[in-house]
């Protein structure tokens, strides 16, 4: 029996969102006194931000396939996606402002509250206030670009993806070979005092990260056209999982290998998002809901955690910062205990934010935009 190809609710991918958000949570637990990457082969646990970018391209393509025909469709899409992320962003900013001392210039506040802070790719702007929100600033750029990339003809999309990736890689090569041509700021010990450095530019700047989003869009096109039996889907999922685990174990070896092949800037950033084709394969495999591993991961509690994962992602660093700065829990020792406390508080807050902010805001904007018209299904990722 062939697997279903275009279900609008992909519980396995929803559940996987939680694992990606949890990896970022572990990455940010250093202020609590423990560096989890030291116990996980020095893996950069923030790598799953790239997973979110790929997943976003995939699920938006799934939910909007054959739905962006008119100018009104495209404008409604951008407005809807903005209000998918902005109300929660604003709420978390208010929580941050009320609990953590913050100062900054008007420009930083303006960029932050309009979700443009990663578009000026300096640490001082991208990491302003709730630092994790830099990624949804990048997502907003993706949303604006999506209606114009999502061409009817797949060959045009493939050509665009190839040219864009070639352009990004070529620019990395030029910066690697002729850094004197560019006036990037030097990095200082306090990154928040740095200007636009070479690293911050290639990490935050949305046009650079667009390759991951387009990769997710193309992954959907493959998924749409390739049917797998239940057994084949299970094999594909097992193989994809093994590839991810193999990379986790050997990431530092892989990066060291590429230093002798790729331009320096490309290799410097491989640790953050160079593995995104691996995430494309992983998402493609687990999108087939009837595969054994997809069914296993679609447990109702994991799906629930996936549903609140955007709120979890947005609030967890605020929780960790409060424990570290305001309660100074590091003075008491027992770092694992405080990690558990941070996780529990973050999950509880996520549940409240998801039900009290995320869902009502999205339902409101959909009613305003579509009224009695058919409402496009909500995509799985912010």
Please describe the structure with a list of short key phrases separated by commas or semicolons:
Acyl_transf_3_dom, Acyltransferase, transmembrane, 382 residues, globular, mainly alpha
Can you describe this structure?
This protein has 382 residues and is mainly alpha-helical. The chain has 16 helices and no strands. The chain has helices spanning 11-27, 48-64, 71-99, 106-113, 123-126, 134-149, 154-177, 198-204, 206-225, 230-258, 264-274, 276-286, 292-297, 300-307, 309-326, 335-370. The chain starts with 10 loop residues before the first helix and ends in a 12-residue tail after the last helix.
Identify the overall geometry: globular
Portion in strands: under 5%
| Major sheet characteristics | none
Low-confidence stretches: 1-7
Q: What distance separates the N and C termini?
A: 33 Å
**Number of alpha- plus pi-helical segments:** 16
Query: Could you estimate the helical fraction of the residues in percent?
Result: 55-70%
Whole-angstrom Rg: 21 Å
Averaging pLDDT over every residue, what do you get? 93
Structural class: mainly alpha
Task: Name the helix and strand elements from N-terminus to C-terminus, one letter apiece.
Answer: HHHHHHHHHHHHHHHH
Count the domains: 1
Count every beta strand, where a strand is a DSSP E run of 2 or more residues.
Answer: 0
């Amino acid at each position: 029996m062939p697997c279903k190809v275009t279900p609008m609710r992909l519980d396995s991918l929803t559940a996987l969102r939680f694992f990606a958000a949890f990896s970022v949570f572990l990455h940010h637990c250093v202020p609590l006194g423990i560096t989890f990457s030291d116990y996980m082969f020095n893996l950069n646990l923030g790598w799953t931000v790239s997973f979110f970018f790929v997943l976003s391209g995939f699920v938006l393509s799934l939910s909007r396939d054959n739905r962006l025909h008119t100018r009104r469709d495209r404008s409604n899409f951008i407005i809807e996606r903005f209000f998918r992320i902005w109300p929660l962003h604003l709420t978390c900013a208010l929580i941050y402002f009320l609990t953590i001392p913050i100062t900054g210039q008007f420009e930083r506040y303006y960029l932050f509250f309009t979700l443009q802070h990663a578009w000026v790719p300096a640490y001082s702007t991208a990491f302003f206030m709730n630092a994790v929100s830099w990624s949804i600033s990048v997502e907003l750029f993706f949303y604006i670009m999506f209606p114009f990339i999502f061409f009817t003809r797949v060959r045009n999309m493939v050509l665009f993806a190839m040219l864009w990736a070639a352009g990004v890689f070529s620019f990395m090569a030029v910066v690697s070979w002729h850094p004197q041509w560019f006036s990037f700021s030097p990095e200082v010990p306090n990154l928040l005092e740095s200007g636009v450095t070479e690293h911050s530019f290639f990490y935050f700047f949305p046009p650079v990260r667009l390759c991951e989003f387009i990769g997710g869009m193309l992954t959907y096109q493959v998924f749409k056209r390739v049917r797998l039996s239940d057994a084949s889907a299970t094999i594909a999922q097992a193989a994809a999982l093994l590839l991810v685990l193999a990379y986790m174990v050997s990431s530092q070896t892989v990066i060291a290998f590429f230093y002798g092949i790729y331009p320096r800037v490309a290799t410097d950033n491989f640790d953050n998002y160079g593995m995104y084709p691996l995430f494309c394969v992983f998402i493609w495999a687990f999108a087939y809901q009837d595969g054994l591993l997809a069914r296993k991961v679609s447990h109702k509690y994991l799906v629930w955690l996936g549903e609140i994962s955007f709120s979890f992602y947005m609030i967890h660093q605020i929780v960790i910062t409060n424990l570290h700065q305001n309660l100074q829990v590091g003075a008491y020792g027992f770092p694992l205990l405080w990690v558990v406390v941070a996780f529990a508080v973050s999950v509880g807050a996520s549940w409240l934010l998801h039900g009290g902010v995320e869902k009502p805001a999205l339902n409101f904007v959909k009613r305003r935009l579509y009224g009695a018209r058919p409402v496009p299904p909500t995509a799985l990722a912010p």
